Sequence to fold (487 residues):
Amino acid sequence: MEIHRKVNFESEMDTNFLGEIKEKSHSEEISRCIQCGTCSSSCPMAEYMDYSPRKIIAMVKHGFKDEVLKSFTPWLCASCYSCQVRCPSQIKITDVMYTLRREAVESGAYPSKMPVPALAQEMHKLIAKNGRNSELWLVVRMYLRLRDFIGPLKMAGTGIDLMKTGRMSLKMEKIKNTKQLHTLLKAVSEEAK
Amino acid sequence: MKEYAYYPGCSLKAGSKHYEESLLPVFKAIGVPMKELDDWNCCGATAYFSVDEAMAEAICGRNLSLAEQDGRDIIAPCAGCYLTMKKSNAFLGSGHAKAKKIMTELKNAGCEYKGTVDVIHPVKLFTDDIGLDTIKAKVTNPLKGLKVASYYGCQLVRPYTDFDDPDYPTSMDAIMEAMGAEAVNYPVKARCCGGSLAGVLDDVATGLNRLLLREAKRNGADVIVTLCPLCQFNLEMNQDKIVKKYNEDVKLPILYFTQLMGLALGVAREDLGFSRSVIPLDVMWAKLANGGAK
Fold:
């Protein structure tokens, strides 16, 4: 068993992190967090997280950039917005979680073996190409990306139920004006650089 | 009445066909003019906003622009599509520097958006804009004797709280009562089903959905109605796993609220997508036969 230091030194903190996240999530309110824990107690997913929403906000405030971007927590947010409507400091917590996901993808620090970021990135690619999502193909691509061949087997029962009730589509959906979509997305991504 | 732009989103064309199959006849029965938005693209859902904000806003902007070109407001039945586009609509019109840049690129790509479109969910259209008295007057087969738990999930009632309560909403219950059904008390009606996480994390799927199903049963519901494709899918498709894992009988039909509305408004049973239910509906049909509906 290896023993590691469990406490971060102040000099290791990223002092720009709070400012970046505030700006990117359009949420100046993060500074006003009083650590009351209303978010964590409202969160249906808190029991699965490595850091509760309350802790994540504290860590963002104090510059624990590495820990936050590697955390499962932003990817376990179900976007239910319970925390956001209850926060007494009106912090847009769900929007902050989205920003943390984007930062984690951009820096490459996201948990790559976890299905949620794999699903998000495959869906992003599919929509950027075709303008539409195709449920079945999205799931196939996610499992291929994860190199997980047991996951699809576990879903076989659901697949059969969907087929029996005519709810499984094999079609790859696509919009007509993909040219317009591609022009738009290219321009917007260049603009953002 | 002016014509609306119907935005199906990806689910209503695939796994949630029965939402579209029941929604369109209901619009017709009530007399709401509706045409599908031509060449709509995916709203991007939670996934696109997890990867690239500017691109996510831009694809919503294209849909809004398509509706604006025809001078129509958007009707979005999927709670995910509804919230994503409503949020984008607010952001694009906010005057924020990033929003202005996206507006410029929309214009350059030939899909200018001025910001005049409203994004509306059918539940709000029925309760606020048309009014339940008007709809109730068209009921020919009241759903007497049927006990219904209305499940709202998250994204219709949060974060925007402009038309119903974020913790204990009542609009869909009122629709069900106007259809002649009995709305049972269902305190967990706006708790999360896990959304897309339930599709990839088994423990989340069984844990969250078990509570939702158990509470509906405990309060005597014969059926749960939903307004969101992902909620419908999670509540229906996890029942076998929950029975197996917890040895607990949580079996209940999970329908779209529009399927029951269609029945009450006199649409033929065969035309409302009931055959797409994975859970047998015998108990519900028996109740309705005893209660007086056809």
